[in-house]
């Protein structure tokens, strides 16, 4: 049985351990940097947004992270029709969690990173989040140059998937995460000098805070339709208190237990399968494009395969209702980090 947290609670106790591990339908744990008895170089914090436009068949991925030793800012554009992607990222070293990210998911905040190649600003005020991302020299898969996104994400405070767990190897290492979506998204996107509306798009948020082992590997899959989001993943921390596997359907969380993601030998061409142990989820993903990001700075190593594709299958809600999935675009990623 997975443990559901039902009331607000502090995240970290005086002994440096999570006070109560488990999952919740809202971000009930209170994260405080001052409570962490670790060097700021070891604390990992990130906000990751993904915008999906089903009409035109593209994804926009925005990462704003401060990983203590360095911060990583990234903007990518995945074109499902062209089966290709474009990406620009930037690293800044020795940031020590001073980038301005909020301590908790519901806090208002504003952060900006800017250099000659990429600018990203995120502003959260109450139920709205504005993301402005500009990369004037980015060459897109269709040959156009320049990407400017001005998106407003509307958060209606539905239920979300929240988890707080630790590692067996060291209970003072922890992971606190919220996955939220799908959230209605409006605004504009400019590719080269061509301006289009983002209306009809929706977004997810992957919000993470923690202190990690030196090396970790994980699998994560997210799939958004207009009325649902699937969040599926495992591979790090002890998940005996709770998994992060969940269906968000019409604003309500339907919890899943353990799942298995079968990784094909050829990540880019062969089908991936995802299923749970209780017969409530069965999906196949036909890969379309692999957004690869391999970095090796010796002290820091990252190998990321974020494989986008079309999902077919079904999932079953708590009340037994079956929802069929047909050619729905989403992704599965496999990531190794030494950080």
Short synopsis of the structure:
By secondary structure, this protein is an all-beta fold. It is about 0% helix and about 60% strand.
Describe this structure in words.
This protein is an all-beta fold and 339 residues long. It has one domain. The protein has no helices and 24 strands. It has strands spanning 9-10, 22-24, 29-30, 43-53, 58-66, 70-79, 84-93, 109-114, 119-125, 128-139, 145-154, 161-166, 174-191, 194-197, 201-211, 215-224, 228-234, 246-249, 252-255, 259-262, 272-276, 281-296, 301-316, 322-338. Strands 2, 4, 5, 6, 7, 8, 9, 10, 11, 12, 13, 14 and 15 form a 13-stranded antiparallel β-sheet that branches. A 9-stranded antiparallel β-sheet has the order 19-18-17-16-24-23-22-21-20, with no helix packed on it. A hairpin with a 2-residue loop joins β13 and β14 (194-197). The radius of gyration is 19 Å and the shape is globular. The model has no long low-confidence stretch (mean pLDDT 96).
Q: What structural category arises from helix and sheet content?
A: mainly beta
What is the domain tally?
1
- The tally of strands reads 24
List SSEs in N-to-C order. Answer: EEEEEEEEEEEEEEEEEEEEEEEE
Radius of gyration: 19 Å
Give the CA-based shape. globular
Please bin the fraction of helical residues: under 10%
Uncertain segments are none
Q: Tell me what portion of residues adopts beta-strand conformation.
A: over 45%
Q: Counting H and I runs of at least 4 residues, what is the number of helices? A: 0
The largest pleated sheet is described as: 13 strands, antiparallel
How many angstroms separate the termini? 32 Å
